[in-house]
TrEMBL record:
It comes from the Eukaryota. The keyword Transmembrane applies. The gene is vsig10l. Residues 34-127, 231-308, 402-486 form the Ig-like domain. This is V-set and immunoglobulin domain containing 10 like. The chain crosses the membrane at residues 602-628. Keywords: Glycoprotein, Immunoglobulin domain, Membrane, Repeat, Signal, Transmembrane, Transmembrane helix.
Length: 697
């Protein structure tokens, strides 16, 4: 470039300036404009200026407004200082060109500012500014609500707090990926809301806060707790059922955070706490529903699931069959029972029905017919492990013999006679009772047992028992049997005497006819006196020339012992049966003494067994008679000595708990065990030798 070019360039600039001044002077319009951007950002504590320029008039008047409040007024180039509002004098300054300066500005000066410039005759010029004052962002923290976060709740919120600072922009990130507001996330003024949290929302959340003068990031790890999910159950080995004695393991697990604990429960009892239940030698009692309960220990949420364990086992024992009466003895109910086992056995009576059956315990009712009497019916029992069966036969009642027992009720003072009628039958026969032509029902005099087999009769006098003939009828659906009973007064049969070898102790035995009413016995003796005690304990002596009672025995007694007998004396014994205060006919008399070694029947038996002539028999009979006569005379001349022991005397009648023999009715009577007992007792006391005794009528 030459100096000529430079010259012309300067002339052009001068010309433009000259024309510019010429144009302004010609129009004379007041113009004000910002020199800096109208949005001004400043850090707190700094100095910032809202710079303007104006043209069109000298010395205009300038007023600055904060929002609608005038804070500074001044006429440019005036010798007077600017008029600054008192509360703003520490910060605000007015420059010569009308610009407004903030010294050590604070956050409370953030506002909208308006500059109005006026000049008389030229109108008003206006310009606008926005001042934003920012503190540095410091000490930012994130808070979680609620804490902990559980899957399925409505939402959770992350909110930031800081000790100071102004945020111009916030940004949220999840695992370094920016979060935008959508259907699941909502970015709000100072928080992030996550709606319907899921387990996948577990991770790191970061907030980034910015203003023109500082940037801060802070993060938080959020864990969404969940579960337990539905438990997964498994049995190993996996089988549809197990046999008794097998071993297996049950497993239970469920997803969750934290990992849920699993507990196996059976029958209300916790069996395992680690999710594994080992069962060895499993039994049928261990079959059933096993429940796995899973628990999230932190959220307290729990779930459960059931598993059915099938344990099969053969039912115990064998099937049991029975039959009973129904419908008032008009029908038969066949019953088959094979209980236990898993599953229950399936039971049926094919001979009675092809369509009816049941499990474990089966009843089948049929109408009674003659062809069912003594017919064997089979129950077929079907089980997966085994098939089995049982039989039952229904039968009508058979002939029977009633049994009679007599006792004495001390409380009421009554004689109690119990008659028992039992007939073998299937089903068990029901017994009905009658006296004469009238039916017997339970009341004060008559009591029928719950099973109807016993009739109890109560009277004060024995004669009342003898007035009526009683009958019992045993009945079931297949038939009936009837027996009559005629009670008798007190009586004795088969009275016997058994002395010991020394003849100082004697045992008396007797029997009672089957239908006799007996409540006690008087043991009577005639002969030399026996030592005894009266009720005061003093010694007394009885008369020897008449019968006297030496013992009292209850109705159940069938024997009595008499001690301290004189072996050289003769004693006579008899037993008097009694029904309360009524005495029956005394028994036959038994004699014990030196002359009583052989009885008449015994002598006749010996004579019949010796093949001798009639003369020899006569001589032998005379010899025996002479011996007996001499011995009696000798005994009558001997001195009698009292016996030192008292005679046993029973004063209290005891209840008879042993029934009498069965009544005869055309059937064979049972063996006479009393006679066998007497013989054994005799052999014991006589050293194995049979005694000789005399029966006197």
């Amino acid at each position: 470039m030459t100096w000529m070019d430079e010259f012309w360039r300067l002339n052009a600039v001068f010309l433009v300036i000259l024309l510019s001044f010429s144009f302004q002077g010609a129009h004379c319009e007041l113009v004000v404009s910002p020199v800096v951007p109208t949005l001004v950002k400043a850090a707190a504590g700094s100095t910032v200026t809202l710079a303007v320029s104006f043209s069109g008039a000298p010395d205009p008047t300038v007023t600055w407004f904060k929002e609608n409040l005038p804070v500074v007024t001044w006429t440019i180039d005036s010798s007077s200082p600017p008029d600054i509002a008192p509360n703003y004098r520490q910060v605000l300054r007015m420059r010569k060109d009308g610009s407004l300066t903030f010294v050590n500005v604070t956050r409370n000066y953030t506002s909208n500012y308006t500059m109005k410039m006026t000049k008389s005759g030229l109108g008003t010029a206006v310009t606008y500014f926005t001042l934003l004052v920012f503190d540095n962002i410091q000490n930012v923290e994130l808070h979680l609500q609620p804490d902990p976060v559980k899957e399925g709740i409505d939402d959770f919120t992350l909110q930031y707090v800081m000790s100071q600072g102004d945020v111009e922009q916030q940004m949220w990130f999840f695992n370094a990926k920016e979060i935008k507001t959508d259907s699941r996330y909502s970015v709000e003024q100072n928080s992030l809301v996550v709606r319907r949290p899921k387990r996948s929302d577990t991770g790191q959340y970061t907030v980034k806060l910015e203003n023109p003068f500082s940037t801060v990031e802070t993060d938080m790890n959020v864990t969404v707790l969940y579960g337990p999910d539905e438990p997964i159950l498994e049995a190993r080995p996996d089988r549809p059922f197990y046999l008794s004695g097998d071993s297996l393991s049950l497993f239970c697990q469920a997803e969750g955070l934290p990992q849920p604990t699993a507990v196996w429960v059976f029958g209300g009892e916790n069996l395992s706490h680690d999710g594994v239940l080992n069962l060895t030698n499993v039994q049928t009692s261990q079959g059933g529903n096993y429940t796995c309960m899973v628990l999230n220990g932190q959220t307290k949420e729990q779930r459960q699931k059931n598993m059915t364990l099938n344990v099969y086992e053969r039912p115990s024992g064998n099937p049991v069959c029975s039959v009973q009466s129904v419908n008032r003895n008009t029908g038969l109910q066949y019953h088959c029972l094979w209980w236990g086992g898993t599953p229950l056995a399936w039971l049926s009576f094919p001979a009675l029905s092809n369509t009816s059956s049941g499990a474990g315990n089966f009843n089948l009712t049929v109408t009674t017919s003659d062809n069912l009497n003594r017919k064997t019916i089979t129950c077929v029992a079907v089980h997966p492990v085994e098939q089995n069966q049982c039989n039952v036969t229904a039968s009508s009642p058979v002939d029977f013999l009633p049994a009679v027992r007599t006792t004495f009720d001390l409380g009421e003072g009554k004689i109690v006679v119990t008659i028992q009628c039992v007939s073998e039958a299937s089903p068990e026969a029901v017994v009905s009772w009658s006296k004469g032509s009238e039916a017997v029902i339970s009341g004060s005099t008559y009591q029928i047992s719950n099973n109807t087999t016993q009739l109890e009769i109560r009277y004060y006098n024995v004669s009342s028992f003898l007035l009526q003939k009683y009958a019992c009828t045993c009945l079931n659906p297949l038939g009936s049997r009837r027996r009559e009973i005629q009670l008798r007064g007190p009586s004795i049969s088969d009275f016997r005497l058994f002395p010991n070898q020394a003849r100082t102790v004697v045992t008396l035995t007797w029997e009672v006819p089957p239908a006799s009413v007996v409540t006690g016995f008087d043991i009577q003796m005639k002969g030399p006196n026996l030592p005894s005690e009266n009720h005061n304990g003093s010694q007394i002596r009885g008369s020897s020339n008449k019968y006297r009672t030496i013992q009292l025995k209850p109705g159940s007694a069938r024997s009595a012992d008499v001690f301290n007998l004189d072996p050289d004396s003769t004693y006579r014994f008899r037993v008097v049966p009694k029904a309360r205060i009524t005495e029956g006919k005394p028994s036959e008399v038994q004699i014990l003494g030196p002359g009583g070694g052989l009885s008449g029947p015994a002598i006749a038996g010996i004579a019949a067994g010796i093949p001798c002539s009639l003369l020899f028999l006569l001589l032998l009979g005379g010899f025996i008679y002479l011996c007996v006569y001499c011995n009696k005379n000798k005994s009558s001349r001997q001195t009698r000595y009292p016996v030192s022991r008292a005679v046993e005397k029973a004063i209290t009648a005891q209840p008879d708990s042993t029934p009498h023999n069965l009544l005869t009715g055309g059937l064979k009577s049972p063996p006479d065990y009393n006679r066998l007992h007497q013989v054994l007792f005799l052999v014991k006391h006589m050293g194995g030798r049979l005694p000789l005794f005399v029966d006197i009528q």
